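Request: How about a record?
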Amino acid sequence: MFDIIKSEDNRRTVLLTESAERISGLFRKVRRQISKDLEMPGFRPGKVPKSIIDKQYGNIIKAEVADSVRRDLTSRLLEKEDWILDDNDPEGKIELPVDGVAYSFEMTFSLFETPEPAGTDGIRIEIPSLNLEDAVEKAIESFRENMISFETVDRPSEEGDLVLLEACPAGNTEETQKINVRIGESQIGAGFDELVTGAVPDFEFSARMDRDASDEDKPPVHRFRVTEVKRPVLPGLDDEFAEKTAGVKNLEELRKKVEESVSTRYDREIVYIKERAVVDSILESNPFDPPEYMVENIFQDYINRLGEDGPGQETLTAAKELALNKVREFLILRAVAEKEKIEITDNLIEKETSPEESESSVRDRLKNRKAMELILDRADITEKEPQKNSETETGKEDRPDSSWRWVQVENEERETCDETTGKGKS
């Protein structure tokens, strides 16, 4: 039982009381545990008399009972009042309980008050439009790419071809390595695709990775020989392809299945985009520092889920930032729900409660969900054309790490696996 006996600003002084019957039960429980683990000459485990246990461990028993009562009553108080504490260390001098006597004590709690939320109306959100027909065709083309095969051709290599090479790394004049390069994918670095475009079998060349051709300390030279050129062969768009790809009877069923998958994925992504935009906007409009203990709890949960021993500083910093934003998101949505006087019915709480959740946590979760829905209902949501892939616009070789680039070198600069000359490029 608890009574709020004083309220001043964000501080609440509460008288907490536990019944004599409950206190007696806790004393018995602690005594049993001590007796079970106690080895004392002349007594079997678990059979040490109560008088001896109380004489030797009386204050320890009282302290454990007091701590158990404090934690239990505080938890029930916070559950009932739905308070968020400013810190996790309430004030109060707790006297030790007496077996068989009702136990009362006072505690003062400092409550955290989230600033009244602003900027929750008319948030502007842009969502990408969906060209369903185009998306389905791209998905099917992706399936075809995953089932691609290659066949040898007797012509110079071109975009999309697979070029098979023997490589003689710098400093190795005896053993060669076999490598495959598909032109257009920049698989082994910027510039290399250009060196093998237009090549035919037996074309030989020397090249190195250069950051700046004027550097005096030039990187080592590697030797290459084209052994084969293969063109891509995509599977036909037919019923056999549909059956192999998705286990459906024909191409029409495949397209329908892909359409459903694309639509479902798009809907999920749109929900995420909208909610992320809301969270980012309201956190920017409502800067505040949440209780540190709440951030620390989420932070430790993130670290534990990573399962890493001694995570690096970068990981710790990222986890702390995620935890901070997660707590701020929870508190600001909670404040929106309070401002809008959002209520949750007992029936819905009962329906949504799992064995792992308390009633208050379920209520908060449902209130925050409704607060998010309310903000989205009031948001200014517009569609925009999806941005073109910069890789498609500028070419796949224009990648972030392109400061190093393959360049061809003259034959006399190379370290060769054998004495041959460059030949075979049309």
